[in-house]
Amino acid sequence: MSPGIAEPPTGAAALPATEEPLYEIVGGECVELAPMGIYANLIAARLFIAVESFLQTHPLGTVVMEALLILDREANLRRRPDVAFVAVNRWPLDREVPETGDWDVVPTLAIEVLSPHDVSTEVEGKVLEYFAHGVQAVWVVHPEHRRVYCYSAANETTILDEQSTLTGGELLPGLTIPLTNLFRRTAAAAKPQ
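Now predict its structure.
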């Protein structure tokens, strides 16, 4: 071991190998993303599963989690929404997706789930960028306040509280996600009485 470098822990106390941090590319610069909180991660997973399950019987496109998407190749703008839906008119279902690297497609729907580390001005900036580059809808999920801000344009927003049902609108017609279920703090849903 080199001088000044501590030995890694061994045995039961050993730490797992760390993965590379998630990042985005903004103006050609690599910007590291803050780690997502557990609750925000659970909400993002629930949204992904709901959309993926819906797409199994409604083949309208593809849904991904935390994929680095190229919004503007010339400006080298690559964003990583927590969940993104890409409609078939942007990427046909029979066209192979890249095995590695960034996906050269602008999503139809971008979903951002706020974590305690997120800065609201940065999230607002992302919303504006998404629409400027052709995203048709953006959902910004606020777990702390149990609300979803559904943007249909940069200046058109519908705010849903936890008693509401999130719908797919024209992009995912027929998709419904009860927000009481989305925002539950337990891993399992409450059993009906």
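DSSP finds three helices and twelve strands in the chain.
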